[in-house]
Amino acid sequence: MAPVGPTPIIMETTMSKTKELKGASKAFSGTLKKYQAEWQNKETFQANAPSISQVPLHSVSPADVRTQYPKFFGTMAYPYMNGTLHAGHSFTVSKIEFAAGYARMQGKRSLFPMGFHCTGMPIKASADKLATEVALFGKYFENYKDEEAEAMPQDQIKADSRREDVTKFTAKKGKAATKAVKMKYQFQIMLAIGIPIEEIHLFAEAKHWLSYFPPLCQRDLTNFGCRIDWRRSMVTTDANPFYDAFVRWQMNRLKELKKIKFGKRYTIYSPKDGQPCMDHDRSEGEAVGPQEYTALKLKVLDWAPEAKKIIEGKIPEDAETFFVPATLRPETMYGQTCCFVGPKITYGIFKVSSKEFFIITDRAARNMAYQGVFPENGVYEKVGELLGSTCVGTLVHAPLSVHKDGVRILPMESVLSTKGTGVVTSVPSDSPDDFATVTDLCKKAEFYGIKKEWAELEILPIIRTPSYGDITAEFLVKKLKILSPKDTKQLEEAKELAYKEGYYQGIMLRGEFAGEKVEVAKPKVKQQLIDSGEGFAYSEPERKVVSRSGDECCVALMDQWYLDYGEESWKQTALKHVGNTDGKGMNTFAQETKNGLEGTLNWLNQWACARSYGLGSKLPWDPQFLVESLSDSTIYMAYYTIAHYLHGDIFGKSPGLANIKPDQMTDEVFDYVFARRDLTDSILTNSKIPREVLASMRREFEYWYPLDVRISGKDLIPNHLTFFLYIHLAMFPPEYWPKGIRANGHLLLNGEKMAKSTGNFMTLNDMLKKYGADATRIALADAGDGVTDANFEEDVADNNVLRLFTLREWIQEQVKGASSLRDGPKNNFLDRLFENEMNTLVYQARQHYEDTNYKLALKSALYDFTSARDFYREYSAAGGIKMHRDLLFKYIELQALLLCVIAPHWAEYIWLEVLHKPSTIQNALFPTVPAPNAALNAEREYVRATGGNITSAEAAQQKKKSKGRDIGYDPSKPKKLTIYCADSWPAWQEKYIKFVQSHWDVDNKCMLIDDKEVNRQVALMNEVKTNKKVMPFVQNLKKRLLSGVEDEIQIFERKLPFNEVETLQNMVSGLKKAAGLSVVEIIRVSSSDGGKSGFLVTVGSSSESDSEHRKIENLPSIAQSAVPGLPTFGFEN
């Protein structure tokens, strides 16, 4: 029986730090469910390729079919089914969801499928842990005695982020690396993610995870309003025999293509699990790979006295002992002047053979034990220990060093026992750290207990660099003002500069390969050391890696099946596709993504594709192994295209449209369906699948492929996204290679990292319950679009609950009272400005959606669109006229259409319930409107700016009065406003117009010189000091040109695109009401006399046809400041 009553406290809970609600109570959840059910019942999001009866297969080319019936196919990385979706998942989901929604509005058939990833160790490891815990504590953990959750020490939280090999691309830390709190038992973790204690024991069976979490994932995404075709979903692993057959076909073909090979290679390895530990098998160390070094054998020539005493009896007298540093720069070994140890580090003395012993750390010995360095795999015999300080002064022979008489072991406080072997060879000519340390040792020899001459061996040039000369380290230490080895920040910068310059541009000055470029000589020197027996290859994890089983991993050199990523011709094909120089390759949407992919392609090689533990598909030719989780998830997007033909449920138990069984999907059938071969009689005979069914499946693939965009978090660039690219290029003809990869940043919550331990964490279900789907989607769109980390602000979600509610209420009121609105012809002022602004925003929103800039699309489609309505509404009310009915209904319809991509439920409500359209807005096209009128845009901005400037001018007068200064009128009495508008531009501006025009790039719409050069050249024209208006005028001119709102010819010819006086006349009635003015007077200021006189245009609210004949003399000085488009103002009673 399940326990009755309160369960014992298993762990401390943290109160949620997410924000309290202000407006979420207004969310209309019932309406959301209604539309979601309608979309599902009407199969709104079920997308199909044109049938073979519509267009017979290959009657026209697949490309022509796609042209005739435009399509969009986008996917994201299918989520792993060891929990529910969190806010970070939803951010990535939103990107593909918005893209799919906009594609529908472009009239495209839009496919967004979603599968459920279950391959790998995490589920199996967690299930096995629970089985152990059930045996230990009972079915309901009733025998568990409350303990404190184990917190990871802070010094372990901070992973060593220093990059040893600066030529190698690395991703920023992924989600696994941000986990700061570890719970001791798996059942505690299950409780933390919301599993009832009476159900946890069921998860001791791995298959239960596969049936429990996928429905929750589908529930959350459906509640989110996703436009997903759920017919095409599946679970991975052999739990779905169709998907299992697909993976086996993929692996067979890759092996036939010689992309999968067998042999010894370095891989991250868990001794506890007895197998490679790949990315998805790790609780810490995501995207960490093996770091390969050259290990040097520095033979001991003469021991330091204290060390000699310690080793006595432990090492045979006729044996050789070596200090073994590991270096990434074998080409610099000619310049070794000493060798460093950490004085406080305990080193082991490890027996390699009866005649050979190594001095290294235990960690390094453990790595070497799995790399063939010691006689027996996994065994490293330690015969003794030495404290680093006891070794100081030992004389050793340094291979290749110009100092043939040997170099000394010296102390270095910054040596890490967790990096390399704990022994560091010193090359002060090219290593800033070494140069700084050697310099410090020389200065403080007595303090360090060494002889000064030990640190004073001559530093000879090894590599010549164009920027830093022959002694790179010395140059950079002086340039960056590095004073001691404790200047770690500057040293890190210097190291990166030195290593990059040396590797990419350095020329060897010494040794057999003198005169060669460093990047050419480096592997030759390494091989020379290995061939001479003075060095060997050594590898270790780049950073700490912990398996799901809790084992700290090492690197093993082992026989295994691996994908030969990095093979030269394959790599070059991939680089060309990413480079996209001919426009036929792949869109990466952001330069950082492109750089990341190219960087990974340039270093990635040989990825283990098999494991012996976990869930997955068996390797077809070696069934003792399972296909590794990042290797079975590279081309499953192709599987989506035919999944609904294969099965009717995610496990493949019920038949799909094809009504076939898994064993009918042979490798040859997959070859045909995925356009790798033609149909033959043998395929028809052996598979027993009807020709029409095979043709329909092939049509699905040929229509939906190539994949238009693949969206994932940026942490998947170094693995999944690169693998995805490689395998597509290997498996499919070029016509079907991916068209786009978009990487997004991680999602912050309220400006902070999400973490369950701090309470700053939300699942997608939490977000939907709190804010509803549309406000959540709006906040995700508002969070950002780049590769940098985005920020989900709960205030944005909450404010938009209120915004959508208020907007909906207002729209309903207007429709209800439509008979009281104005009809008939539209006026030439507010109606015309409002309609043009709507058209402009529709064009802007369209462009932003096409560019996948959803934050900007949201601004145009919602924030700016409602602002345009507010302007029209408020100015109409101030002018004493009603809004035009046709324009208002146009606004309502456009608002629904513009928001359909981001807020589909709200848009559907307005479309169906308010506007009473006959069918769902999900099938509506993006609105087509007349092109924006630049003159009307400029006039609208003028009206807004002038109204705001009048308000600001009056406020400035009020402020003066509050300080006791005379302002010339009493604000409490009826006021008169005089507006001074200029009839022409000041003469002094002409030469600056010509200056800007001479430096304006007409083709690229940009300045040919930067701001600094603009300022310099303007200053040389000798008016800046005497005329303070010059620089602001030039800057405003540039701003107007760069905005693209106005026609540049009009700007250079200094013509306003509208009649300023007429616009001011149209504004008068509104200004009087809005500002509480009794009289508004407009005076056109004459430039012929420097603005001292002008003509009265309008008195009060009337316009007189002969008013310009009424000349006004002796205008106030403020009138002289007016220029066309920027009037000035005066107040009086």
TrEMBL record:
For this protein, the record's InterPro entries field holds: aa-tRNA-synth_Ia (IPR002300), Leu-tRNA-synth_Ia_arc/euk (IPR004493), M/V/L/I-tRNA-synth_anticd-bd (IPR013155), RBD_LARS1 (IPR055416), Rossmann-like_a/b/a_fold (IPR014729), tRNAsynth_Ia_anticodon-bd (IPR009080), Val/Leu/Ile-tRNA-synth_edit (IPR009008)
The protein's matches in CDD domains, at most eight in alphabetical order, are given as: Anticodon_Ia_Leu_AEc, LeuRS_core
Q: Which UniProt keywords apply?
A: Aminoacyl-tRNA synthetase, ATP-binding, Ligase, Nucleotide-binding, Protein biosynthesis
Q: Which reaction does it catalyse?
A: tRNA(Leu) + L-leucine + ATP = L-leucyl-tRNA(Leu) + AMP + diphosphate
One GO molecular-function annotation for this sequence? Answer: aminoacyl-tRNA deacylase activity
UniProt entry tagged with the keyword Nucleotidyltransferase? no
Q: Residue limits of the Methionyl/Valyl/Leucyl/Isoleucyl-tRNA synthetase anticodon-binding domain?
A: 831-950
Q: Which GO terms describe its biological process?
A: leucyl-tRNA aminoacylation
Q: What class of enzyme is it?
A: ligase
Record-listed E.C. numbers:
6.1.1.4
**Aminoacyl-tRNA synthetase class Ia domain location:** 68-130, 204-792
Do you know which Gene3D superfamilies this protein is assigned to? Answer: HUPs (3.40.50.620), Isoleucyl-tRNA Synthetase, Domain 1 (1.10.730.10), Valyl/Leucyl/Isoleucyl-tRNA synthetase, editing domain (3.90.740.10)
Instruction: Please list the residue ranges annotated as the Leucine--tRNA ligase RagD-binding domain.
Output: 982-1042
Family stated for the protein in its record: Belongs to the class-I aminoacyl-tRNA synthetase family.
- Tell me the protein's name: leucine--tRNA ligase
